[in-house]
Design brief:
Layout (H helix, E strand, L loop, with lengths): L1 H42 L3 E5 L5 E4 L3 H5 L3 H4 L13 H13 L5 E9 L5 E11 L7 E8 L1 H29 L3 H13 L6 E8 L4 E8 L3 H7 L2 E2 L5 H6 L5 E3 L8 H10 L3 E9 L2 E10 L7 H46 L3 E7 L4 E4 L1 H7 L7 E3 H7 L5 H7 L9 E9 L5 E12 L5 E10 L1 H23 L3 E6 L4 E4 L1 H7 L17 H4 L12 E9 L5 E12 L6 E9 L1 H34 L1 H14 L6 H32 L7 E4 H11 L1 H7 L2 E6 L3 E4 L1 H17 L8 E8 L3 E8 L29 H11 L2 E7 L5 E8 L1
Parallel strand pairs: 24-26
Antiparallel strand pairs: 1-2, 1-5, 3-4, 4-5, 6-7, 6-11, 7-8, 9-10, 10-11, 12-13, 12-17, 13-14, 15-16, 16-17, 18-19, 18-22, 20-21, 21-22, 23-25, 26-27, 27-29, 28-29
Helix pairs in contact: 5-6, 5-10, 18-19, 22-23
Length: about 800
């Protein structure tokens, strides 16, 4: 035994020594790995920070010194947010939330601003991972690297691309722009988009008055328009300097500018720096290109050189436009002269005149003098002299037609009367064309004058004839109207206007669909525009009073006199009364057919439901005449006879009630409060409702109904009592009553959770003495009465149901 013990001890010691050797080897290997990790940590390009979930730093790798210049003691046990610029805090917080919601995923922040020990800010790319549940780490690991130099290179590249894009697009606009205004608008837009300026505008200057007019802008707000409207620029200010020969004027820090008013405006708009550059035409400054930035000292030498080049290109384009403009003006004058010469050759008795705005002097042709009845020697006239010949009743109109704002399209034509020196009243047609200088300012008015007295008298006679025709058209009952291809009304008589509740004058040149009720009236035209005459035999619309009317319409396409445009003439005849008469006749026939059906059903009921009790009474009476029956048998026969008599009486009573429903209703309709009606029925059924624990759900979108109260009470009572009577044995009854407005009138629904009805027998549901459940006492009269009363009130009733899924009755009343 001792030998075995010694042997075991020797073996254990050997194993222990082997384990110790392995442990020493593992420690050496671990120290080697730690040394490697330390070298990578100190010499690597990435920084590592481990923080708690709250942000407290509990570990900073030595490599942070290489990236940010800090040592571990500077930030250990402090919050990591002290290492992050305030503008980057939001990105950092979103990354923290991301790794908390998905612990197995990393969160990457592509651009995080962190401070260097030398006071500069570095752009950092960081990766966050949540290792708080890892016992060896126990926190959130932030692995980051400095990408500042990469970002600076990227920003420089973007800057170069922006400058290239700016000058490139300016040159493209110069090539494609049609005129100065379009070029200026494009230049301002380009300054905002690839140029990254906050506001850009171009103005043309009047150096004598030191004023500038903004004619193009981009990024402008109402404040900008208010500030620069009718703007007088300061002496020795930016605009004044470039007008007087300076290549550009830069304001690097607007807040330090001496013009307090401009400082307030710029502060409200967020402008920090600005530049003003001259725009030249034929070497003369005619305007300025003004750019504003939201950054101080935005305009560096490279930026300024680019902008000078761009404005030089714009100035070159202005010279090109000016040359084209002068050539175009020369061509216009030539065409105008040719036109006047041709006009003078072709048109007889046509006078001409010119008015110079600066002098107010007019030069009249000989024919113009003849028209006015003046000596040929009076070719020079003043504006006041001309106005003295105008008829007093037309003077205000002539003054209105000859104001400068009437010449926005360069020409104006109008008719007016004059009184000649010989007191003759003449009707004249005037056509005037304004001439503008190279700056676009009006300087001369040229016109022609034509005596149209004879034509005017003929036109007056025609107008009187049209007026008489109009009176005739307005007196007929048919609605007559016409619309052009744009859907605008070109003619309407009083009958048509009355449909819309308007007067004919209120409809002319109005689009049908733009008018109140126009969608209804548009039906009278049929298709939008037709090529052939058509007849619409029947159209139902609502007029302005809400009354439904029926029309028969004839539509005829035609060409508007004096124009090539197409129009559609419609003549609509009101056939409402005729249709009502036809409907009443149809309804009468329908009623006769229904009464025949009712009579057949009544005959069937009389022949079947009366036959059984009458036969029983006859048979039992015959048996009672037999004196041989014992007394107890006779008592049974007597009892059965009484029962048959009562059954006969019940059938006769039911038939009497039905006959009363079929007769004319003499009770007057009244305003019935449906909520009160339901409460009355609940009171009369209170005992049954309490015993069966009935629950009611009501949604009365329509609270009142104009109806026969007794009929409506009977309808509600029968449907509510049926819902309780045919309840399910395993659930308390629930009765849902709802009223709502529909497109045609009022709908009432009764829905329950009862045993339901087999809809395969739906055509028998409302039949007299038709029953579908025999475990409950009843005669099969209730639903027949309900249907009869609903129809007597002008309504319709339908049913939705399924076995064990409840029943829903739907009642619809029109109107």
């Amino acid at each position: 035994m001792k030998i075995l013990t010694d042997y075991w001890r020797l073996g254990f010691r050997a194993k222990l020594r082997a384990a110790q050797r392995q442990l020493v080897a593992a420690e050496v290997q671990l120290k080697t790995l730690e040394k490697k990790f330390q070298i990578l940590n100190e010499k690597g390009g990435n920084g590592i920070i481990i923080m708690t979930a709250e942000g407290t730093i509990n570990y900073i790798a030595s490599s942070v010194l290489n990236i940010l210049g800090y040592i571990e003691a500077d930030f250990l046990n402090r919050n990591v947010r002290l290492l992050i610029h305030e503008n980057s805090i939001a990105y950092f917080e979103r990354a923290i939330e991301a790794i908390k919601s998905s612990p197995d995923d990393d969160a990457v922040i592509e651009s995080l601003m962190m401070p260097h020990a030398d006071g500069s800010w570095r752009t950092i790319e960081a990766t966050l991972r949540d290792l708080t549940n890892d016992e060896s780490i126990g926190g959130i690991v932030i692995n980051f690297r400095d990408i500042t130099s990469h970002r600076i290179t990227s920003d420089k590249l973007l800057y170069v691309n922006r400058l290239y894009s700016f000058i490139s697009q300016i040159n493209q606009s110069i090539v494609h722009a049609k005129d100065e205004r379009e070029l200026f608008e494009h230049a301002c837009r380009i300054a905002l988009e690839p140029g990254l300026f906050r506001f850009a505008w171009i103005g043309l200057v009047d150096s004598d008055l030191r004023r500038i007019e903004m004619i193009a802008s981009a990024g402008a707000t109402q404040k900008d328009f208010d500030y620069f409207y009718n703007y007088t620029y300061d002496q020795h200010g930016p605009i004044d300097n470039v007008v007087n020969g300076q290549d550009f004027f830069v304001v690097s820090d607007i807040e330090n500018k001496s013009n307090n008013k401009f400082i307030v405006y710029a502060h409200e708009r967020g402008f920090k720096s600005a530049i003003c550059l001259p725009l030249k035409k034929s070497g003369v400054v005619v305007g300025s290109f003004n750019l504003y930035s939201g950054d101080k000292h935005f305009f560096n030498p490279q930026e300024i050189a680019l902008l000078i080049e761009a404005t030089s290109d714009l100035s070159f384009a202005l010279d090109v436009f000016e040359n084209d403009k002068q050539r175009t003006l020369a061509e216009q004058r030539l065409r105008h002269s040719e036109y006047r010469l041709k006009q003078a050759q072709e048109i007889a008795h046509l006078g001409s005149w010119q008015l110079h705005f600066r002098t107010g002097i007019q030069h009249w042709s000989e024919e113009a003098l003849r028209i006015y009845g003046l000596p040929l020697s009076d070719s020079v006239q003043t504006l006041d002299q001309w106005l003295s010949y105008v008829h007093p009743d037309d003077l205000e109109y002539v003054l209105e037609m000859t104001t400068l704002d009437k010449f926005q399209e360069n020409s104006v034509a109008f008719f007016h009367r004059i009184i000649r020196p010989d007191n003759q009243v003449r009707y004249l047609y005037c056509h005037a064309l304004i001439e503008k200088n190279e700056r676009g300012k009006p300087f001369e008015l040229q016109g022609i004058v034509h005596d149209v007295t004879d034509a005017k008298l003929t036109e007056t006679a025609l107008v009187e004839s049209k007026s008489n025709l109009r009176k005739i058209v307005d007196t007929i009952p048919q609605a007559i109207f016409a619309k052009d291809s744009d859907g605008k009304i070109v003619f309407a008589n009083k009958s048509f206007a009355a449909i819309l509740g308007l007067k004919p004058k209120q409809l002319i040149h109005k689009k049908v669909l733009d008018l109140s009720g126009g969608k209804q009236v548009a039906k009278l035209f049929g298709e939008s525009m037709q090529t052939k005459a058509s007849i619409i035999p029947e159209i139902e619309i609502q007029d302005s009073t809400g009354t439904t009317r029926i029309f028969s319409t004839t539509n005829v396409p035609y060409t508007i006199p004096g124009k090539s445009t197409q129009a559609l003439l419609a003549i609509a005849t009101d056939i409402t009364q005729q249709k009502h008469t036809e409907d009443e006749r149809t309804k009468m026939v329908s009623d006769i057919v229904q009464r025949n059906k009712d009579l057949e059903q009544f005959s069937y009921i009389v022949s079947h439901n009366l036959r059984a009790p009458v036969a029983n009474i006859i048979g039992l009476s015959t048996e009672l005449e037999d004196k041989d029956y014992p007394e107890d048998v006779r008592e049974i026969l007597q009892m059965q006879l009484s029962k048959s008599v009562r059954r006969l009486d019940e059938v006769i009573t039911d038939l009497n009630r039905i006959l009363q429903l079929k007769t004319e209703i003499i009770e007057e309709k009244e305003e019935v409060h449906l909520g009160g009606l339901i409460s009355d029925i609940q009171s009369s059924l209170s005992r049954l409702i309490a015993e069966e624990q009935v629950a009611f759900k009501t949604d009365l979108g329509i609270e009142k109904l104009h109806t026969l109260k007794s009929y409506q009470h009977s309808i509600f009572y029968n449907l509510i009592s049926n819902s309780i009577k045919y309840r399910r044995p395993d659930a308390p009854p629930v009765v849902e009553i709802r009223t709502l407005k529909t497109a045609k009138g009022t709908r009432i629904t009764f829905k329950d959770n009862g045993i339901g009805i087999d809809l395969n027998k739906q055509n028998q549901i409302f039949g007299l003495y038709k029953r579908f459940h025999h475990h409950v006492e009843g005669k099969g009269v209730g639903l027949f009465m309900v249907k009869t009363q609903v129809e007597a009130l002008g309504g319709r009733i339908s049913v939705n149901s399924a076995i064990d899924s409840g029943t829903e009755f739907i009642i619809d009343y029109d109107g």
